[in-house]
C-alpha cells in the first residue's frame, strides 16, 4: 500500500481540525489522514484488516502499515495475490488468466465494468492497455448507447490474449540501470519501465498507460510526447 495514512480521505467537516499556519502567514489544512493524529493508527489498522479480509490470521498479519505474509509451503507463498514469483521474474497466476479468458461477451455496461475490473489488476503486464481498451471504456460514457461492434469485440479478444500470454516482469535489481520508453497518440499515452543489465539485456518491470481526456487528446504531437514522459515519471515516482 502506497503512502499509508495519506491514502485515507478526511471527512470534509473535520479537515479544519488539522489546520496550521506557516511563518509567512499562509494557512493550510490536510485533506487526507496525516501522521500525529491520535486516531490515525486505529483508522489505518481497521482499513488494513478489512482489505486483507479472509487472509488475516490465515496468511497475513498486520500492524498498522507493516504486513507479514505467511503460508504452509513455499509454493503457496509464491502464488499469493494472483501472481507467481520465480527466480526469473513475476508471472500472472495461470488460473487467474484462464479465468479471465473464459469471461463471456459483455451484454451491458455492468458486465464491461466487471471485465475491465478483472483486467485492470493485471494491466501492469499489458503494453498500452488504456489505448487497447478504449473501444470498451468508450461504452461506459454517460448517455452512450450500448452497441457491441467489431471494434469492441476485437478489443475484448485482444486484452484476453494479452493476459493469457503476458511477459515476465523482472524482479528489481539494484545493480541494473532503469530506463523508460514512452508512447503517445490522441488515443492515449503509454510507458514501460525497464531494467538494463551490464550485458545490455533489457527486461520490463512495469507497463503504464493512461486514457486522455478530450482536451488532452487535442495536444500537438510534440506536446503529447512530453506529456507522456511527464505523466509516466510522476506516476512511477521517478525523476530524471
Total beta strands: 9
Strand content: 15-25%
Radius of gyration: 21 Å
Helical proportion, percent range = 25-40%
Helix and strand element order? EEHEEHEEHHHHHEEEH
Largest sheet: 3 strands, antiparallel
Average pLDDT confidence is 87
**How does the helix and strand content classify structurally?**
alpha+beta
What is the approximate shape?
Answer: globular
Question: Between the first and last Cα atoms, what is the distance in angstroms?
Answer: 24 Å
- Count the DSSP helices: 8
Uncertain stretches of 5 or more adjacent residues: none
In short:
This is RNA-directed DNA polymerase. The chain is built from 8 helices and 9 strands. With 240 residues, it is α+β, with helices and mostly antiparallel strands.
Could you please describe the fold and organization of this structure?
- It is a single chain.
- The chain is an alpha+beta fold and 240 residues long.
- The chain is 32% helix and 20% strand.
- The chain is built from 8 helices and 9 strands.
- The chain has helices at residues 40-52, 74-78, 94-101, 109-120, 129-132, 134-137, 150-164, 221-235; strands at residues 20-21, 27-28, 60-63, 66-69, 83-86, 89-92, 177-185, 188-196, 202-210.
- The chain has a 3-stranded antiparallel β-sheet. Strands 1-2 form a two-stranded antiparallel sheet. Strands 3-4 form a two-stranded antiparallel sheet.
- The mean pLDDT is 87.
- Its EC number is 2.7.7.49.
